[in-house]
């Protein structure tokens, strides 16, 4: 399985980079992982709804530039479906069985994901009704994908 994570913004905090590196290393046993960072647009503190829409559209164009036709796209979205770790594991396994071997997760920027990106998504996934920093969400996503592979392979980890 080829897994691509397209995410808005760079990780500045060393502790987050270390966690991402660790889960990337662990995942290398199970899949080919590619993380693509799209430049984030600066959002002024007093940005209007229109300003935010323009920013999301710019970031969305940056995201869509890396989405290939053969990718099964999962957008992380607060309005998406919530899955347990076991259900995410089954979801990934089902994609592999169906022959969808190019899975792409999209993590938007601080103000969300543009409509064109959400429309391209094959699936919308919500990790929680709570809002997380998009930088931290990258760590959470990689940990859950790793957990999913451990579950799938019957290996100990998910307690």
From TrEMBL:
Query: What EC number is given for this enzyme?
Result: 2.1.1.177
Q: Which UniProt keywords apply?
A: Cytoplasm, Methyltransferase, rRNA processing, S-adenosyl-L-methionine, Transferase
The reply to whether Methyltransferase figures as a keyword in the UniProt entry is: yes
Is Transcription regulation among this UniProt entry's keywords? no
Q: Where does S-adenosyl-L-methionine bind?
A: 76, 108, 127-132
Give the Gene3D superfamilies listed for this entry: 3.40.1280.10
Give the Pfam families listed for this entry. Answer: SPOUT_MTase (PF02590)
Q: Which reaction does it catalyse?
A: pseudouridine(1915) in 23S rRNA + S-adenosyl-L-methionine = N(3)-methylpseudouridine(1915) in 23S rRNA + S-adenosyl-L-homocysteine + H(+)
Compartment list = Cytoplasm
A cellular component term (GO) from this record?
Answer: cytoplasm
GO terms (molecular function) for this protein are: rRNA (pseudouridine-N3-)-methyltransferase activity
Q: What class of enzyme is it?
A: transferase
InterPro entries the record matches: Alpha/beta_knot_MTases, RlmH-like, tRNA_m1G_MTases_N
What function does the entry list? Specifically methylates the pseudouridine at position 1915 (m3Psi1915) in 23S rRNA.
Task: Relate the assembly described in the record.
Answer: Homodimer.
What family is this protein classified in?
Belongs to the RNA methyltransferase RlmH family.
Check the record and name the HAMAP family matching this protein. Answer: 23SrRNA_methyltr_H
Q: What is this protein called?
A: Ribosomal RNA large subunit methyltransferase H
């Amino acid at each position: 399985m080829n897994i691509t994570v397209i995410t808005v913004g760079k990780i500045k905090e060393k502790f987050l980079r270390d966690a991402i590196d660790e889960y990337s290393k662990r995942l290398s046993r199970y899949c080919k992982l590619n993380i693509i960072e799209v430049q984030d647009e600066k959002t002024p503190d007093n940005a209007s709804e229109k300003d935010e829409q323009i920013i999301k559209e710019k970031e969305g164009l940056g995201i869509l530039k890396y989405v290939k036709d053969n990718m099964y796209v999962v957008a992380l979205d607060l309005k998406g479906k919530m899955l347990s770790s076991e259900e995410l594991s089954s979801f990934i396994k089902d994609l592999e069985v169906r022959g969808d071997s190019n899975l792409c997760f999209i993590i938007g920027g601080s103000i969300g994901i543009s409509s064109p990106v959400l429309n391209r998504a094959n699936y919308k996934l919500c990790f929680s009704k709570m809002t997380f920093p998009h930088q931290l969400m990258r760590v959470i996503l990689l940990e859950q994908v790793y957990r999913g592979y451990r579950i799938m392979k019957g290996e100990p980890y998910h307690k």
